[in-house]
Amino acid sequence: MTNIIIIHGSYGNPNENWFPWLKTELKKLKCDVFVPKFPTPENQSLESWKKVFEGYKQYVNENTILIGHSLGPAFLLDLLENLDKPVKSAFFISGFLGLLGNSKFDEINKTFTDRDFDWEKIKQNCKKFYIYHSDNDPYVPIKKARELAEKLGSDVIEIKNAGHFNEKAGYNKFELLLEDVKKYIE
């Protein structure tokens, strides 16, 4: 059985964007799908999210696929840095490292993104990364995706006019992501 964990971003929740659609599609494929609700923006910190994730750690193993949107990839990098066993793959959508130069986001994101990571350990714990980014993301410049891809030894899958891959940009579904995730489902 494949476990799939989807991590939302700042100001986000499990019931927005393409998350409910993807969860439904993956359940049709007999996957166990988890979309935790994290505190945001109030009480948002790496530590508070780690406390919430304690209830989901049991589902992280060699049959797990990780998916993160926006701040989600930074949270998943921390998770990958601290695993004992590797996961199947990780999918990062509009992910970033460091600060964005936007005080609204930088203040609540900094414990996740403004730090050093053990890139070798992260790559040992996940052999295949997919990084999706839009050419017109209003929050995260594409250079941030390129920095992330370089650190992970991956490529950026650039999608035209996808904004921040959220409902505002018309992303209630994400067909390409579903097709790529299917490659890792047993």
Structure report:
The structure is a single chain. With 186 residues, the chain is α/β, with parallel strands linked by helices. The chain has a single domain (1-7, 15-69, 85-133, 164-186), classed as Rossmann fold, CATH 3.40.50.1820. The chain is 34% helix and 16% strand. It has seven helices and six strands, in the order βαβαβαβααβαβα. The chain has helices spanning 19-28, 46-53, 72-81, 103-113, 119-124, 142-152, 175-182, and strands spanning 3-7, 32-34, 64-69, 89-93, 129-134, 156-159. A six-stranded parallel beta sheet has the order 2-1-3-4-5-6, sandwiched between helices.
- Please describe the biggest sheet, giving its number of strands, its sense, and whether it closes into a barrel: 6 strands, parallel
Number of helices: 7
CATH fold name, please?
Rossmann fold
Within CATH, the superfamily carries the name Alpha/Beta hydrolase fold, catalytic domain
Which structural class should the secondary elements be placed in? alpha/beta
Number of β-strand runs: 6
Helices and strands, in order, run as: EHEHEHEHHEHEH
What is the overall silhouette? globular
Distance, first to last CA: 7 Å
The overall pLDDT average reads 97
Widest sheet, order of strands: 2-1-3-4-5-6
Range of strand content: 15-25%
CATH architecture: 3-Layer(aba) Sandwich
Provide the helix percentage. Answer: 25-40%
Cα gyration radius (Å): 15 Å
As residue ranges, the low-confidence spans are none
| CATH class category name | Alpha Beta
Q: State the domain count.
A: 1
Q: Gist?
A:
This protein has about 190 residues and is an alpha/beta fold. The chain has a single domain (about 1-5, about 15-70, about 85-135, about 165-185), classed as Alpha/Beta hydrolase fold, catalytic domain (Rossmann fold). The chain has 7 helices and 6 strands; from the N terminus they run βαβαβαβααβαβα.
